[in-house]
């Protein structure tokens, strides 16, 4: 019978409608702060329930333009304060990074560069020789020159060490060898110990394990270059952060001017004064307190 429903909203100028829609707009802006990925991200100040004073009702009834200006300034100042809070949060985060994070990262990369450099030099001095490209491996005091024998002995030793604590069993290409059992992934692992440690996951193939060891040592030059690149990038980020942290809040003057104007309007409109209570809850001094009735009754 009624396929379409049309909704009309009527607003009357210089009435209480302006304030009602102002409340709805304020609620929607607060909800939008939470439901957006933009700044401020997933955070907002708790909003107190708005109480309408008698002075605000009087201004709405009289249609004073200064009250409309005050409402606009309320929104603008609130928005600027949110922007400043976001600026201060980023500012403090940059200060922490400049004082703690970036220097620690640079120090860590410097240590890695020294360690990778020393280990890469040791690996270069002990290159695999012969047709099978194998460097003699020492296991439990015995040196194995054949690749197959070394691989089989490595598997046998692993079975003798079912513990998760690393145990040193020998050396290869200038690196000490530690074996341990990875209880989380349920397989044996090996550490190549030089200036730094390099983990190698072991399998059940004797020759395949030796290939994995060689592949791990072959990554040392790439690790060294990656550490140098990361150090350079971190230094650049540190210098950029030092420049950004010196920048002031872009809307500081605008916030100051609008806040001063808003305070002036509040004084002009007497909105800075609290309303006097309408009903006095305290009893009059001359009012007599009614006598308590006697609860005793005749039987």
Describe the protein's architecture and organization.
The chain is α+β, with helices and mostly antiparallel strands and about 300 residues long. The chain has a domain at about 125-230. About 55% of the residues lie in helices and about 10% in strands. The protein has helices at about 15-35, 55-60, 65-125, 145-160, 205-220, 220-245, 250-270, and strands spanning about 135-140, 140-145, 165-170, 175-180, 185-195, 195-200. The protein has a six-stranded antiparallel beta sheet. A hairpin with a 2-residue loop joins strand 1 (about 135-140) and strand 2 (about 140-145). Helix 3 runs antiparallel to helix 7. The protein starts with 16 loop residues before the first helix and ends in a 31-residue tail after the last helix. The model is unreliable at about 45-50 and about 275-280 (pLDDT under 50).
Strand order of the largest sheet: 2-1-3-4-5-6
What is the average per-residue confidence, as pLDDT, rounded to a whole number? 81
Percent in helix: 40-55%
Given as residue ranges, the uncertain stretches (5+ residues, pLDDT < 50) are 45-52, 275-281
Strand content: 5-15%
Spatial separation of the terminal alpha carbons: 73 Å
Number of E strands: 6
Radius of gyration: 39 Å
Reading the helices and strands in chain order gives HHHEEHEEEEHHH
Our count of helices gives 7
- Helix/strand structural class: alpha+beta
